[in-house]
Design a protein that fits this description.
Elements lengths: L2 H15 L3 H14 L4 H13 L3 H14 L4 H11 L1 H4 L2 E2 L2 E2 L1 H6 L8 E5 L6 H4 L7 E7 L2 E5 L5 E4 L2 H12 L3 E10 L2 E10 L18 H9 L2 H9 L5 E2 L1
Antiparallel strand pairs: 1-2, 3-8, 4-5, 4-7, 4-9, 5-6, 7-8
Length: 241
């Protein structure tokens, strides 16, 4: 790849990270014009169409990726999502209904939290993500990492939040995680409680720090942890949610 092609590639990634989808379309079109089998550019083009609400065009470009790379995990997963778009996210004349997508991020006190990840992946990996994309929590060695398609590393949940979530998960709670926003070297996710164990029926997954004093927060988080920490951490095997 010569210097001009490399620069164009970086500009296309930057446009995606900045949510400049019209610019991303033009930049990726130029790359594809010179290199029709460039699966990275084709994936980015599909994503740009998706973000602009043009589902049919997005499906077309993800299908092109699979013509050249039949096992490409990004195209495989997103094509399945797009094929269900009419049912799951709403579609009118081949475009998405953004009201349905936006409803995904409605927050419930105690049950949802937007978390800014630390130690995020490099921009090239972040450029393959999109708002609303489902990702996974991986619990291991008292840490929670967030994984994308094909278990690609995306970032780490801050320790204070991870400590609480690990205790709740090991006690029976269940969660889903979605991409909330993507920026250069910055990634935030929405963590949503989908099932609360009877054990924690009166304990919210997330506490609003503005509604509690530091002492109250600390006491609530660790009231059971001190007596049961050995139980939760004696088995350090990996847990993926």
């Amino acid at each position: 790849m010569d210097s001009s092609s490399t620069q164009l590639h970086h500009l296309a990634i930057q446009a995606a990270l900045d949510n400049r989808w019209s610019d991303a379309l033009k930049l990726n079109q130029e790359i594809i014009k010179n290199d029709p089998k460039n699966v990275d550019a084709l994936n980015r083009q599909a994503r740009a169409y998706f973000e602009l609400g043009k589902i049919l065009q997005a499906k077309k470009f993800y299908s092109l990726v699979l013509n050249y790379d039949p096992y490409n995990p990004i195209a495989q997963k997103n094509l399945k999502i797009l094929k269900a778009a009419k049912k799951n996210i709403g579609m009118v004349n081949g475009t998405t209904n953004n009201k349905v997508t936006s409803s995904l991020f409605l927050q419930e006190p105690g049950k949802t939290k937007v978390v800014s990840l630390i130690k995020v992946a490099e921009p090239q990996k972040l450029s393959t993500l999109y708002c609303g994309m489902s990702v996974k929590m991986n619990i291991k060695n008292r840490k929670i990492t967030i994984l994308g398609l094909d278990n690609i590393y995306l970032g780490v949940v801050p320790d204070d939040i991870a400590h609480r979530l690990i205790r709740l998960v090991r006690g029976g709670n269940k969660y889903e995680v979605f991409i909330k926003s993507i920026r250069v070297n910055s990634l935030s996710v929405l963590i949503k409680e989908t099932y609360r164990s009877k054990r924690f029926r009166n304990e919210p997954s997330f506490l609003d720090s503005s509604a509690f004093s530091p002492r109250e927060i600390f006491t609530s988080m660790d009231s059971e942890a001190d007596s049961e920490e050995e139980e939760y951490y004696q088995d350090e095997e990996e847990v993926v949610i």
